Amino acid sequence: MTPTITAFKASPDRGRGLARDMRVRWAFEEVGQPYEVRLLTFAEMKEPAHLALHPFGQIPTYEDSELALFESGAIILHVAQQHAGLLPDDADGRARATNWMFAALNTVEPPILELQTAMFAERDRSWFAERLALIHDQIRVRLGQLSQRLGEADWLDGHFSAGDLMMVSVLQRLGSSGLVAEFPNLAAYVARAEARPAYRRAFDAQYAVFLAASAG
Ligand code: GTB
Q1: What is the mean pLDDT of residues 160-176?
Q2: Three-point CA angle 143, 165, 175, nearest 5°
Q3: Cβ-Cβ contacts under 8 Å for 34 (sequence gap 6 or more)
Q4: Residue nearest to atom 24 of ligand 1 (CA)
Q5: Euclidean distance between CA atoms 4 and 64, whole angstroms
Q6: Does residue 26 contact residue 165 with C-beta atoms inside 8 Å?
Q7: Closest residue (by CA) to atom 9 of ligand 1?
């Protein structure tokens, strides 16, 4: 059975590939697994049919004939475990790639989410400039550490893996902040990942949803 994922019918990012279905699409493309997408409005995401799949009423979700999942990290790990292409063959290598997935989600992403929350909800506060500087510094610390570890390597642990897919997806959320550009090897790392044919196919697929929605 072809797995089905859910995504925004009208993503607020206007097709920039920042919603979390993008990373799942990318994983499917990397392993060559066809997938279907069910598009949802914000209202549909809060209805019982979707809440039965996703207790928090969000996207993405994953369904095949036997299994339903929510959480992009869990979905990508499942896809990577089911198909060759996103995890090394040896057990230690698989553990290290999984380690990088968790590092992306639990250590690198949290201050980036703080930044997005601040930009979205706190711009009009008197202390906004101070808070922004603090969050930028927290992010710089993490990026500096990541940059140090990556060094001149192409990927975090040898070959491209689900760990890189997740890390790049997280770094992309810094968008136009200019923070990634402060670390040339990280900027090159993101660009290298975005040049992968699988990434391009996934990006084009989610962009087609935006184009269709814009056409009416
Ligand atoms: N931890 C979950 C996961 O990784 O799967 C988080 C899922 C999540 O945050 N989903 C968001 C959602 O469904 C969409 S991706 N939000 C609707 C809601 O909570 O009601 C987050 C996102 C949304 C929009 C942009 N954007 O416009 O740039 C970027 C990222």
Answers
A1: 96
A2: 50
A3: 2, 28
A4: 19
A5: 7
A6: yes
A7: 58
Q: Are 190 and 205 within one domain?
A: no
Q: What is the pTM of this model?
A: 0.97
Q: Are residues 114 and 103 located together in one domain of the fold? A: yes
How far apart CA 61 and CA 71 sit, in angstroms, is: 7
**Structure-token pair, residue 51:** 């809440």
CA distance 188 to 128: 31
Please say whether the beta carbons of 60 and 202 come within 8 A. Answer: no
The residue type found at 52 is A
Among 98, 100, 128, 99, residue whose Cα is nearest residue 114: 128
What's the mean pLDDT in 126-152? Answer: 97
Domain that holds residue 21: 4-85+198-215
Supply the pLDDT for residue 201: 98
Query: CA torsion, points 75, 78, 79, 81, in degrees to nearest 10?
Result: 160
Distance 59 CA to ligand 1 centre (A): 6
Q: What is the number of other CB atoms lying within 10 angstroms of the CB of residue 156?
A: 23
Element (H, E) at 7: strand 4-8
Sheet of 36-40, strand order: 36-40, 4-8, 61-63, 68-70
My answer on whether 115 and 74 are in the same domain is no
Cβ of 71 closer than 6 Å to ligand 1, yes or no, is yes
